[in-house]
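ok so heres the complex, two chains, lmk if somethin looks off
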Amino acid sequence: MPVNLQHEAENNLRYIRQAMERAERVSAVSGVGGMAMGFCAFLATAVASMFATLPAQLAVWIGTAFISLLCGAAATWLKARQLHTPLFGDASKRFLTCLVPALMVGAILSWLLWPTPQNILLPAMWMLLYGCGVLAAGTYAAAPVMQMGFCFLGAGLIMTALPAGWENFGLGLVFGGLHLYFGWQVFRNHGG
Amino acid sequence: MAVKPDKSPRTQASLRAISGFVSDDKGGDFHRLLNDRVRLGILSSLAVSEKLSFSELKRLLDVSDGNLSLHARKLEEAGYVDCAKSFEGRIPRTDYKITAMGRKALNRYLKHMEALIKATSTQE
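and the predicted structre for the whole thing:
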């Protein structure tokens, strides 16, 4: 009998853990963080428009990417603290594992292409790679995250077809608009 | 063959630890409520979320509308979850949140399970 009781208790604990992990997927991403990233992108558009050359504008965007990621990470940490959940739970680890490779490829290619005439391809490439990363990571997050990934992929494709001169505006519209909209969706439906 | 009860001080202390979780005034209620898998699932999911909608809980726990509705109402009546109804356009939406009482009950249940495992493993 004690063995059965022990198994029953272990099964119950396992069930609780699994339920928490499944729910964590839905709520781990911060909506406020997403919106903050959107505001950063709009601000970057304004700052970058003060520079005449594309490499200078892209340098502003690279700096903004770091600030945005910090904002997103800080908001996620605050949400985890508020909910008394670990920052690096199973779902969060899987989310990062899916997102980070695409960001790293983006960083490496940006480093290589930035000083060359092909740097005109960078905005579309950033959107496509970010879209891939977010789409894959969306498997471990709330539904709006995956939808945002699809939108980034679509926007990246459109960006490849746009003529030169649209880079700064396109980046602001896509990174600012999509983060703001989907951040709001996450905030409204899942809080934080 | 009748099993002779183990009256060693260690076993008695373990059993006292277990019974302590269910022997207070509201203990019985809390234990009965959380002994159901769906209710336990609802409370566990809400413990790591700010709020979850009815459809999200349904998807997470893989239960029918009627089943989820019934168990969520029982938890609501016990004061373990808060329910907020609203409209998203024309579509009705129900959001659930865990209350402080619900969180406390889940923590007590977890401690109870841990004590049970500890007690039964020391008896082996």
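quick notes: The helical segments of chain A are 2-27, 31-48, 54-82, 90-113, 122-137, 143-161, 167-190. thats all i got rn
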